[in-house]
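User: Can you predict the 3D structure for this chain?
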Amino acid sequence: MILTPEFSRDCEAHDALTFWQRLLSEEELQSCEPLEKLLVGCEIIAALDGVDLLAA
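Assistant: Here is the predicted structure, written as structure tokens:
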């Protein structure tokens, strides 16, 4: 299967949405404020990017 740019963008958007939905509903973070959850998500993204586990 060849991924067209449109399909690829849709997958990336879906993956990002799924990541944030999972993060916001994570049991360990239920007592955290939404802004704290956002910060945790950004730190996860930065850490993954730092070890080249995220596609550019």
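Confidence is low (pLDDT under 50) at residues 1-5. The first helix runs from residue 5 to 25.
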